[in-house]
Design goal:
2 domains, single chain, 6-stranded antiparallel sheet, alpha+beta, 215 residues, 5-stranded antiparallel sheet
């Protein structure tokens, strides 16, 4: 809800900019109209940018405590070749074909600092990438690799990347990654997110046996 409210603020701001730009573009005159027209077009572009920022922010969810964010199950299709089924906490399901021996799920996390955190605003997150890798270094260098972008930003508007480059004292934009976990036929894992990152836990015997073989 919090990040939905933040997105709504961006939508309202974009609507105000769009309204002002529309009024400027509809007024008559010559040079001043041209000047106002240029200003109006600039404001319309700004409105579109803010709307895209709203969409990007809306894709984040609030992290109140350790939270189960997804389950991942595997079906082996061939040698070092698996079909992964990712079910997010909102119930959405997606299938991916992964190459290799291990898998990893990444998330983008916004950690609020200073007086913003003092207001009780909790960290936000969104799932970012699902990838596979080979255990052997030589295979990792030479074999086909698979990486999937789970939440691509719209029109290159990436609030998280912008905050990361700013080094803002109010918010840390960081990656959260579960360590690489082995893939095996019929294995089922639960992925939970804490303020320190992602944790993958085996849920069935196939996953537990797979983890024990790699330890």
């Amino acid at each position: 809800m919090l990040y939905g409210a933040m997105a709504l603020v961006f939508v309202v701001l974009a609507s105000i900019i769009l309204f002002v730009s529309g009024k400027l573009l509809l007024r008559r005159g010559w040079f001043m109209s041209w000047l106002k027209g240029m200003l109006g077009m600039s404001l319309m572009l700004a409105s579109l940018t803010v709307l895209l920022m709203a969409w990007d922010v809306f894709s984040y969810q609030q992290l109140l405590k350790e939270k189960s964010v997804a389950t991942v199950s595997f079906e082996q299709l061939g040698e070092q070749y698996y079909q992964a089924v990712l079910v997010s906490s909102d119930g959405s399901e997606a299938q991916f074909e992964l190459r290799g021996d291990q898998w990893q799920l990444d998330a983008r996390i916004l950690k609020w600092q200073g007086f913003v955190a003092a207001w009780g605003i909790e960290s936000g997150f969104r799932l970012d990438r699902l990838s596979g890798r080979y255990y052997a270094l030589e295979e990792e260098r030479t074999m086909d690799r698979t990486v999937y972008d789970l939440n691509p930003s719209v029109a290159e508007i990436d609030v998280w990347q912008w905050l990361r480059e700013m080094n803002s004292p109010l918010v840390d934009a960081v990656y959260g990654s579960a360590t690489f976990v082995p893939m095996s036929d019929n294995a089922l894992y639960e992925v939970s997110l804490t303020n320190s990152g992602l944790i993958a836990r085996p849920l069935n015997d196939a996953a537990k046996q797979s983890v024990s073989r790699w330890q």
